[in-house]
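Weekly puzzle thread! Below is a chain. First person to post its structure in token form gets bragging rights.
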Amino acid sequence: MKIVPQDQLDHLLHSRDIHPVLMDVGASGPPRGAWGPIAGHSIYVGFDPDLRDVQEMKDSGFHRAIMINEAVVSEKGRSEAEFYLTRSPHCSSTLEPDLDALSEYLFTDLFRVERRATVPAATFDTILQRLALDRVHWFKTDSQGTDLRLFNSLPEPVRSRVLCVEVEPGLIDAYKGEDLFVDAHRDLLRQGFWLSDVRICGTVRIRQSTLRALMSECPSVNYRRIEKRMRVSPGWTEAAYLRSLDHLAKLGADRQDYILLWAFAAAGDQAGFALDTTMAYEDRFGPDETSKAMKAPILEWLNQREPVVSGNLVRRVLASVSYRLKKRLGVVK
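Winning reply:
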């Protein structure tokens, strides 16, 4: 659903010259579609150590977009990082895959290390200084096992102002020493976030030894068939967190923080929290044209009439479908 029309969101951000900073660690592939509503106003910073050089991304849809060809590390003073390059590029990490634990699952082969590489690395404080940025508003990371430690390595003044965090921590031990969902969730709640959305992802739990035995006994059994037929077990999460209003109050946040938190809530279809944020804005700064622009589109969306399908129409449609099916089967002529 789209709770705020694009033109109204554009006007609010443009009229106040607001340019949120979006940080994307593990930026292989195109930037996320969830950023679409705010992309044209945003400064995008992506990290992909496979690129040859830092580059300005032209025609990206962002106000400004930068891709950095360095790995990000949490340890101070490091200028290089060892990368475990796995059979699937999406599983490569600075952590070594835990193949013993992974052997219980169908997708083990994707994590097999084909080679190791030393790549340029930097910490967030160095990169932010280089780019002359003192804020990060939306922090997204898919670092294959190090999401929490990377977020916590942001300089504290920057980290305390982050309004949205997206992480993909594991539910199983895919990497040695990784940050699991239970670790990330507990820590982010402690830092004043709340869980706005979560998607549970996974794969089939079947031992590699069982898989090999099945494939030798029955040639028709293969990876794709097992993946399609068997139940998926939880393996990792895609989780999004928003800052709490209590945190903004304790921080003494400015108008821009409230406006952006409202915009992020709207982009994430969190209409209730967007209204909460509007009311908190009015409590702190008083009602004004900004709070009116934040409140009006959501109330308009909320008051839209739901499409009504009459019982007679449903019965007519079902009768028509039933008749056509019977005619095809030769029951009626």
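Puzzle host: Confirmed. Bonus trivia for everyone else. Residues 51-55 have pLDDT under 50 and may be disordered.
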